[in-house]
């Protein structure tokens, strides 16, 4: 009988990551891109570990895996995993804590400058042969010396502050450290930024969400933009993904949108693929860094 650990890779990761485990003598690996519940229940049944990207991993799937000890998330978010079941089963959840901080920070700066400089409008004006209308165009704004609030000062926030300081921005940080009981009483960050808060912001405010969908109340944001309460917004993550076709932000010209791809550089995807698989290997070698394990 083989002593090899059986690993299910749910949604293939970068080839560099796959090479780590395909060539490892202690693991048998299977890859599946069919993320239906029934298929996952069948595939995960005898697995000791699993990796997952953006697919849902509900409790009914986790409970099929009687030997499951580690779930390695391809990314830093884990709201697609049933945490309650994982906690009850004492299954560890690991994240790629080191892979995407710089990449997401770059994306935020890219979106900020695109909105501040009205990139889409100015670019389209020239492409459509309306160069002569340059003096009729709405003016852009500078980011120099502007106030920049970073909500959440983890690895991404720390990478972002360096880039903001390069533009001589005044950086402020909000990152509450509260105990778990307080979090449960207050609720999570859903609709943290709503119309009442948006009304208090400056007219030249640009708000960017590259963290978690639902932090910004999407209908309230659309309303604030239409009322010129703020200058613009950049949204990489949505409350529902993909967003419904009637989501008002899809038609709002003051919003710069991307399909949850802030970390989608070739370099970052390589790092994330490698770290996702390395976390599984390290877990079974008893060398996995504690900072990469989610506290449930």
Structure description:
The protein has helices spanning 15-22, 37-44, 59-62, 83-88, 101-116, 119-127, 155-166, 180-186, 195-198, 218-226, 266-284; strands at residues 5-10, 27-32, 49-52, 70-73, 92-94, 147-151, 170-174, 206-209, 232-235, 255-257. The chain is an alpha/beta fold and 296 residues long. The chain folds into 2 domains: 5-99 and 267-292, NAD(P)-binding Rossmann-like Domain (Rossmann fold, 3-Layer(aba) Sandwich), CATH 3.40.50.720; 101-257, 3-Layer(aba) Sandwich (Rossmann fold), CATH 3.40.50. The strands form 3 sheets. A 5-stranded parallel sheet has the order 2-1-3-4-5, with helices on both faces. Strands 8-9-10 form a 3-stranded parallel sheet, covered by helices on one side. A two-stranded parallel ribbon has the order 6-7. The longest helix has 19 residues, at 266-284. It is elongated. 29% of the residues are buried. Mean pLDDT is 93; it is low at 182-187.
Short characterization:
The chain is of the alpha/beta class. The protein has eleven helices and ten strands.
């Amino acid at each position: 009988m083989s002593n090899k650990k059986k690993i299910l890779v749910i949604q293939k990761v970068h080839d560099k990551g796959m090479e780590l485990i395909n060539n490892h003598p202690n693991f048998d690996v299977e890859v599946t891109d069919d993320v239906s519940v029934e298929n996952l229940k069948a595939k995960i049944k005898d697995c000791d570990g699993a990796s997952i990207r953006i697919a849902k991993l509900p409790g009914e799937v986790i409970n099929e895996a009687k030997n499951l000890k580690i779930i390695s998330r391809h990314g830093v978010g884990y709201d697609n995993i049933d945490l309650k079941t994982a906690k009850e089963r004492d299954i560890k959840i690991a994240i790629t804590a080191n892979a995407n901080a710089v990449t997401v920070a770059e994306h935020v700066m890219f979106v900020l400058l695109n909105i501040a400089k009205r990139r889409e409008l100015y670019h389209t004006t020239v492409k459509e042969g309306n160069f002569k209308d340059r003096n009729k165009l709405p003016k852009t704004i500078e980011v120099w010396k502007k106030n920049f609030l970073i909500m959440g000062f983890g690895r991404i926030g720390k990478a972002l502050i360096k880039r903001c300081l390069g533009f001589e921005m005044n950086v402020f940080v909000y990152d509450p450290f509260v105990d778990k009981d307080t979090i449960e009483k207050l609720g999570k960050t859903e609709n943290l930024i709503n119309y009442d808060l948006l009304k208090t912001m400056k007219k030249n405010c640009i708000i960017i969400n590259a963290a978690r969908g639902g932090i910004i109340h999407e209908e309230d944001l659309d309303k604030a933009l239409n009322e010129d309460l703020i200058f613009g917004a950049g949204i990489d993550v949505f409350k529902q993904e993909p967003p419904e076709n009637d989501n008002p932000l899809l038609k709002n010209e003051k919003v710069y949108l991307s399909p949850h791809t802030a970390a989608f550089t070739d370099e970052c995807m390589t790092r994330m693929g490698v770290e996702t698989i390395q976390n599984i290997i390290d877990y079974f070698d008893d060398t996995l860094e504690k900072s990469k394990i989610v506290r449930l």
